[in-house]
Amino acid sequence: MHHFMLLALVALASINPVYGVTSNTSIPGVPQYVLDYVWLHSQEIYMPSDIQQQLDNTIPKVNWTSIEGVKSPLDLSNLDTLNSLGNTSVYLTSHDGIEASPQPAWFRGITPDKDGRLGNGTGSAIIIAERGNGTVDAFYFYFYAFNKGDKVLKMEFGDHIGDWEHNMIRFKNGKPDAIWYSQHSSGQAFTYHAVEKKGKRPYAFSGNGTHANYATSGQHDHAIPGINLPVGFVMDYTDRGRVWDPVVNAYFYTYDAKTAAFGAINSKDPVAWLNFNGKWGDDQPPGEPEIFGEAKNVAGPNGPKFKGLGRKLICPSKPCIVLPFRIWSGNSTS
Ligand SMILES: *[C@@H]1O[C@H](CO)[C@@H](O)[C@H](O)[C@H]1NC(C)=O
Ligand SMILES: *[C@@H]1O[C@H](CO)[C@@H](O)[C@H](O)[C@H]1NC(C)=O
Ligand SMILES: *[C@@H]1O[C@H](CO)[C@@H](O)[C@H](O)[C@H]1NC(C)=O
Ligand SMILES: *[C@@H]1O[C@H](CO)[C@@H](O)[C@H](O)[C@H]1NC(C)=O
Ligand SMILES: *[C@@H]1O[C@H](CO)[C@@H](O)[C@H](O)[C@H]1NC(C)=O
Ligand SMILES: *[C@@H]1O[C@H](CO)[C@@H](O)[C@H](O)[C@H]1NC(C)=O
């Protein structure tokens, strides 16, 4: 994922917390939070996408075979019914195929307007997990219909349909403390103080095509997960192309790590899809050639519930280094 995102955070301690939706509005019952912006790359083609639309453009398959008993219409309020029809083996499989040429328009999502809005689409989900003892994690999940892989030695690797990326901001006693940027199978953590912000809202820079999230614009080698070198073998590119404000059109949830239960903060947003155990795109095509275990077309990802929502550290796994300043940030382009 390559895009430039600006995450804006506003933490206001409050006895009756209110989750901020935009700087001007709030939702009763949740703390007022930091909001975020995403900088999409100036040459990005694969924009953020409406989550429901992925269901409209795919059919669930197991081993490339349609399954019986699927609800019609399939929507974000019943998607979890697929768990009993194949569980993690279910792939939301495109009608078009990953190699469709020309590519269908829906692969390209919705281009944010000049205010960073995603039109009438909902391309993000904000999930608030209370940890107790004054710690609250706010996850910002971004959805893209298509992930364009990076090129290595002029060969392309890692295209997939469906793409979930995220930032997580950890609050301690009502104040933003640290932020996680997801990058491919890993990511990077920084103190809140260290990252670039517009007001209180941190920026995330989204990799061109891959949508991996970085704290800086420039180029980023990700051959070694979590280590962001300015030059190298497998490169992500970020710049200040176009701002996406993922908070304006978003679903808002709570997550209880003890019960693994999600709840809609406004009690209206669809919840069932968060419990879906399958994948958000096609499986890797049968017979797809692999070089050193890497293929051009790979399987789609699973959803937010598999991204470490119950994590203890700011990172989903160890080692977890929270950098107090931005280093290995690539060639800054501004
Ligand atoms: C918030 O309010 C300010 C000042 O009234 C206004 O300029 C801005 O457009 C508003 N933002 C949103 C997202 O409504
Ligand atoms: C960004 O991606 C598009 C296609 O996905 C490609 O045409 C363009 O060259 C890429 N730009 C950079 C700087 O990688
Ligand atoms: C998937 O389908 C293929 C072709 O029908 C079959 O040969 C294979 O055994 C199936 N795999 C599984 C895991 O069911
Ligand atoms: C379905 O997948 C989930 C997630 O991996 C797993 O926890 C659960 O045990 C699986 N259910 C069955 C019936 O295999
Ligand atoms: C948004 O509006 C367009 C044009 O009216 C329509 O084609 C599209 O289906 C709508 N998308 C969603 C997610 O409602
Ligand atoms: C809660 O926070 C306090 C003060 O930072 C600390 O001393 C205590 O160990 C924490 N308790 C738990 C269960 O994390």
UniProtKB/TrEMBL annotation:
Q: Which UniProt keywords apply?
A: Signal
A UniProt-annotated Pfam family:
Vps62
Keyword Transferase annotated: no
Q: Which domain of life is it from?
A: Eukaryota
Signal peptide residues on this chain, from the entry's feature table = 1-20
InterPro entries, alphabetically? Vps62 (IPR009291)
* PANTHER family referenced in this protein's UniProt entry, alphabetically: DUF946 FAMILY PROTEIN, VACUOLAR PROTEIN SORTING-ASSOCIATED PROTEIN 62
What name does this protein carry?
Vacuolar protein sorting-associated protein 62
